[in-house]
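Input/output pair, single chain:
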Amino acid sequence: MTASTTRRTTAKSRIAAVCAIAVAGTLLLTACGDQTKSGNNSSDSTKSSTAADLLPPEIKAKGVIKVGSDIAYPPVEFKDKSGRTVGIDPDLGAALGKELGVTFQFENGTFDTLITGLRSKRYDLAMSAMTDTKDRQEGVDSDTKKKVGEGVDFVDYFTAGVSIYTRKGDDQGIKTWADLCGKKIAVQRGTVSHDLAKSESKKCTGGKKIAMETFDNDLEAQTRLRSGGADAGSSDFPVAAYAVKTSGGGKDFELVGEQVEAAPYGIAVAKGNDQLAKAVQAALDALIKSGEYGKIIAKWGVEAGAVTEAKLNGGS
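Output:
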């Protein structure tokens, strides 16, 4: 996710990974973790001295890392029936917190304001299925290509592409983005799906552009599609697949076509905060090596998106 430069964004097709997930049907989620405060700074934290030693002194002193997140993007981050913050990101945040000996405190925010929140120091990190792209790294608006900010750095932790879905039994022949010309799509504002819709609409011929209705969060876009107010929706593949599996007991939506534009999700850090970025990178590498990262990814049934190392600014 992210605003023109804040998605959930774009890269190359990862069809093999899509098939691996789709065939296995592994997005049947089982348990939910917790918690709005993901992690703890108690004495039993299994912290890595190398990673923890890299933390900026002011964060060590507070014992808390504030994480900006749009907590309405299941299964990446969302509220369960009891109101707890759960999902892939909160679980990873809890594990990173233990490695670093601090608490990862998730704070809800609108997706397209998360990078601004980093700049204003409201958040220390942004972790919200945000795609790592060069535009975001450089503070460039992906639509206008104009400089709009100083950009951010990313610690990459997952890989996902973009999918289209429709009402079940009513795909209207939509299989590719080109098939959306002359139709309306409901998307979350500022996401890669939004960027991709704008880009593909420019390719439409005969005056049949893609009509776009944008929303603050993905759940609102799903509601619009469910009610018949749009012909299709688009989200990152794990999110679209989760919606198809769970909405209306699996009776509301269906995936159409193939996943495209696979790219890394990154934990965003404000430019100039190199020490924090390196600490998070070291902690994530420790989780990957220990196998804890793999357990979390497997819990949510999204193994095809797992990474083997924590890269810094690996997006293109």
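The two ends are 15 Å apart (CA to CA). Residues 2-48 have pLDDT under 50 and may be disordered.
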